[in-house]
Amino acid sequence: MVKHSTLIIALLLASGQTLAEGQVDADGFTNPLQNLQFNPGLDQQEFERASSDALQVYDPLESWNRRVYHFNYRFDQWVFLPVVDGYRYVTPDLVQTGVHNFFNNLGEIPTLANSVLQLKGQRAMNSTARLLFNTILGVGGIWDPATKMGLPRSSEDFGQTLGYYGVPAGPYLMLPLLGPSNLRDTGGLVADYGLENAVNYLDVADASRSNPGITALRIVDTRANTGFRYGQLNSPFEYEKIRYFYHESRKLKIAD
Amino acid sequence: MPSIARLAALLGGLAFFASAMAADVDAQSYGYPLANPFEATIATTPPELRPELPADGDIRQSDYSVRLRPDREFELLDNFWPVTKLHYRLAQQNGRAPLIFIIAGTGAHYASGTTEYLKKLFYGAGFHVVQLSSPTSYDFMAAASRFATPGYSPDDADDLYRVMQAVRAQHPKLDVSEYLLTGYSLGALHAAFVSQLDETRRAFDFKRVLLLNPPVNLYTSITNLDKLVQTKVQGIDNSTNFYDLVLGKLTRYFNDKGYLDINDAMLYDFQQSKERLSDEQMAMLIGASFRFSSADIVFTSDLLNRRGLITPRDYRITESTSLTPFFQMALRCDFDCYIAEQLMPMWRARYDGGSLNQLIDKSSLYALEDYLRGSDKVSVMHNADDLILGQGDIGFLRRTFGDRLTLYPRGGHCGNLNYRVNADAMLEFFRG
User: Fold this and answer.
1) Which pTM value belongs to this model?
2) In total, how many domains does chain A have?
3) Would you identify the family this protein belongs to, as annotated (chain A) (predicted)?
4) Which of B4, B240, B243 to mutate to test the interface with A (most CBs of A within 10 A)?
């Protein structure tokens, strides 16, 4: 009897010790929460505070933006995605990749211009090299040999340039068909579009004017390569979440 | 001294006895690289150790929808138009094959990352696959749930069962040889209840059921998750909140690297850098993501039942109405608060009272103990370092499942599901 009780006490002591050292239970459970430091009162409001701050994105046009969000959602489901699916169905993978590379190559022009404007020498050189290799070796940009050569694609737009020089984001905007943006980035979009038209690289801008099919193809290609689907966040608060993600991801891109 | 030797012998014996029963995988031969359960939960498996999966383009799949609650189309407010019908995804093989249902975890969508991964894995093995949203998710609550107050597992399983039957009815030409069932996290608990329901309703007669990282005691899991946002996190002050802290770290990390590139491999690299997150910070991040799920549940359940706790009863909501104030209010309510304010009152009113303990008992694996003990077709895979478990839970699994429990030494919560070894074990179980 005495032996038994000492055994039990020893067992209890041992289990106490093992717990303190972060050891394993008899049934194999390692109890990962035991080593965390918690606030003693468990009444910390940090999650609530941080989340509440995250909802403070400047959005004076909210009710308009929300209508556009619902419009985009419907358009996506009823027009955009079916067209994208059709495009994927009829076009061989190789052609799809070629089309995507081609438009990406055109996109190097604004990246190059904005890298220069932000005085980012290395990125501008990277972009120039990509442009040359992909246009010449990649036959007008249909292939992307530059990435294989260790020149990763990065993108800079005029919205980022403005942000780099301290222009504030301005009110949040949900653009029809294009999705989340803000006043600064919408301005940037217009500027980049103007630039592409002015440069008229590979004659694409001119050709697009007489043949709207090229623009349409570019739009479909962009949608096909954008992973986002409305409803994907599966939350009644998807609007708020997209707004916050957009806001923060732009800040990350500007800082980079 | 002799007593210590005896103790050692006893503990050794216990360990031996236990390992003789369940299939315990030892850490060395297992080879899963992430020893930190929080890292494993967030980053899952390093890309090079994941199984080979079919490409999206090679999967014959489509999203469909079923109308289960026609009344909701009129009941739901304007901005809920996307969720009046329940959507799901079906990937079909050419010709005859087994069909597997996958039930998503807490708050998760049928197309969420883990469900998509499991789909690819099982599709690659030659199964038809149906992906279902969790009964705790926004779309399921709005479109398919009878009471829109998830948490009482028998009711949730009943809702799921109706969905599964509706899904099958929509594809009469699909050539199915047999039915299989799986779920991860909360979805695994649901799968267990669905399997039991199927024993009496017999619509599917599931051949095999696999539970991946299920909660054992629902309340323990909820308490753990609620507690994760209470960790002491360094670096927070009046001007810097928790998200700013994490984003600041990310910004500095990318600046050091020289370019911005967010991908699967980045997370491991980030955790090797000097900006790495501490355990407390990772715990807070995991806890925060679950709090967003609870906010969705709190808001949706309250609104659908017109309880008036978050949204005033007669408040008019259109597509242009700001929901931000309600979001802010719902964010204050964690799982515990949801149970106290919405689930308990509803359950007591519907089933004639009962205590919280009874509710927990009936909603947890305990309620199925006898069924699971005698049911050879149901197996469970779990991790020794899973955050949603409490003390004694693994003991319960060992007693109940015996050698049908596979216990992995690492992986955190669902972090090793996409590890090659686990993938092989899952396929072997279903092919078996």
Assistant:
1) 0.89
2) 2
3) Belongs to the MlaA family.
4) B243
